[in-house]
Amino acid sequence: RGDWPPLLWVCAGVVLNALLIERIGFIAACTLCFMCAVRGLRRSEGQAGGGWPRLAQDLAIGALIAAPAYWLFTLVLGINLPGLTGTGWL
After folding, report:
1. Is 38 strand, coil or helix?
2. Minimal CA–CA distance to 43: which of 5, 2, 78?
3. According to DSSP H, which parts of the chain are helical?
């Protein structure tokens, strides 16, 4: 039997990323995707959601992963990713 709520969290993260990446930028969209995926994976292991502190921690970790990835792709590799501003830093 499938564990549907965790699967829905992970799918929601991927869909939100696809829908929002050009509106809110790469970093914010990937941060949301990370948060949803981690929440789904925790639930699949039977762990509790953790409330607001865990949500804030997941968002911070997601941003700490997404920001260097964005800068690596845009500044080092020269690949154009959607950003929030035209400066190339967000």
Report:
1. helix
2. 5
3. 4-24, 26-44, 51-71
